[in-house]
């Protein structure tokens, strides 16, 4: 009996440490983003499995497993961007192009993503005066 219990825990521990799963905090952030939008097509259908690194439009670092790329361009999303995405602190590439965010301001957290190098906000229906919030992203290549 004891052996069975120990084995059980060992199995859980080794599954949890498996290199193929994404970081739970980042998965939660992506799920909160998903909850705030609707996708007319099937683009977000994969956004439910445990390993968010395998979701469509998401890419993780092979080494750290942090999400480094989020490309939801052409998903034709409707809705608002949840600031939960601020948790994706290692993001290098963010493409929100060709969606409809309903004339919302560009979320301030975008300016806090220190590793961001590529940012595409074009044709996504953001209110224009909110561009000021991007001044912080001096090193980024920004398409609006
Ligand atoms: C962002 O997501 C969280 C968690 O799902 C939710 O509680 C919150 O209301 C959302 N915020 C917005 C602005 O949608
Ligand atoms: C990460 O691994 C995937 C699949 O094994 C591979 O296609 C990709 O090129 C790798 N990325 C890097 C940056 O090494
Ligand atoms: C963002 O996505 C659009 C459409 O898929 C693509 O044309 C554009 O080049 C992408 N932007 C960047 C910075 O990669």
From TrEMBL:
Keyword Nucleotide-binding: no
CC per GO annotation: membrane
Gene3D superfamilies reported in the protein's UniProt record: Ribonuclease Inhibitor (3.80.10.10)
Signal peptide bounds: 1-21
Leucine-rich repeat-containing N-terminal plant-type domain segment(s): 25-61
Compartments in which it is found: Membrane
Recorded topology in the membrane: Single-pass type I membrane protein
Keywords, sorted A to Z: Glycoprotein, Leucine-rich repeat, Membrane, Repeat, Signal, Transmembrane, Transmembrane helix
UniProt keyword annotation of Phosphoprotein present: no
Protein name: Leucine-rich repeat-containing N-terminal plant-type domain-containing protein
Organism listed in the record: Eleusine coracana subsp. coracana
Gene responsible for this protein: gb17954
